[in-house]
Design a protein that fits this description.
CATH architecture of the largest domain: 3-Layer(aba) Sandwich
Number of strands: 17
Number of domains: 3
Largest sheet: 7 strands, mixed
CATH class of the largest domain: Alpha Beta
Order of helices and strands: EHEEHEHEEHEEEEHEHEHEHEHEHEE
Shape: globular
CATH superfamily of the largest domain: Vaccinia Virus protein VP39
CATH topology of the largest domain: Rossmann fold
Strand order of the largest sheet: 13-12-11-14-15-17-16
Distance between the termini: 41 Å
Number of helices: 10
Helix content: 10-25%
Radius of gyration: 22 Å
Structural class: alpha/beta
Length: about 350
Amino acid sequence: MDDTLIVGDMTLKHPCILIPKNKGEPVRKVILELDLLDKGLKIVSVDADLCLPLSRMLSSEEMALLPEEARQDDREFESHDKFLTLEDILGFTPSYEVVGDIALIEADEADAEKIGKALLEIHRHVKTVLGAISAVEGEFRTRRFKVIAGDGRTDTVHKDHGCKYHVDLSRAYFTPRLSTERQRIVSQVGENDVVVDMFAGVGPYSIPLAKKCKRVIAMDKNPDAIHFLKENVILNSVDNIEAIEGDANEIVRNYEGMADHVIMNLPHSADAFLDAAVLATASGGVIHYYGMTHEDDLYDSSLKLISNAAEKAGRTIEVLECRTVRSYAPHQYNVCIEVRVS
């Protein structure tokens, strides 16, 4: 997370949206909804336009939410009052992530309580700081937390790329860290495509995909995840998601050869579901396989597993891309391998 807040009366060049003044307010509301308005900088007028400062440049999908007159630029802005940083308060910058109005840190941090109070001070929209006391665990992929600071809730609504996700972090896994990766997948999907999301969770892949493609078949073994997925289908006004509770190995047998894209976002054990993924994939369809691998063997072993599953079904694969998504632990990486199945 970037916790640096602007100081004093400095004038800084910053990404922004230019929009005719008569359309400024509705655009401001959209930018606020995306949580991308930089509130540390003052909105300014430039001739007939309103200039809205952004915390980052907008993606093409986000720009599509704005009127066609909207355009991105870099402009100088005057800052609001002086703000502190976490380093100003703590003397260091801790590792954390924010989901909705909840900040997450590791519970065993030496200065956990100080970090919690500092996060509440720096991020005024954050209402709770939770400390993780376990890794993702169990067949339902959940984490255990303790309250470090704030009001103690574990449920929140997270906004990302124009989508909303209601989630209880103690009942279903969710991370904002894969936001860019999810949008990369969305960009590959066509409007007539059918997508199978084998480990859908609360819908961070399924919801944005449904806004672009013909149909999403989403499944998860965790009943709480499916509960929140169904809520998020309503929250995001999409009607082309079929949410199914159960084991993906069994469910996909009902969708043999139907998927133009199969999402396999279960990095620690997706290999156990490769036979089912191949079964669900249409001829020419793409499997997006996520694994957790050592730096000495980033792709080769996983590619062999995928190839074996295809061969067992009398099919072949074409490797489209192998990429590192993020560092997970020392010498361990979350990778994505994409193959076309014939």
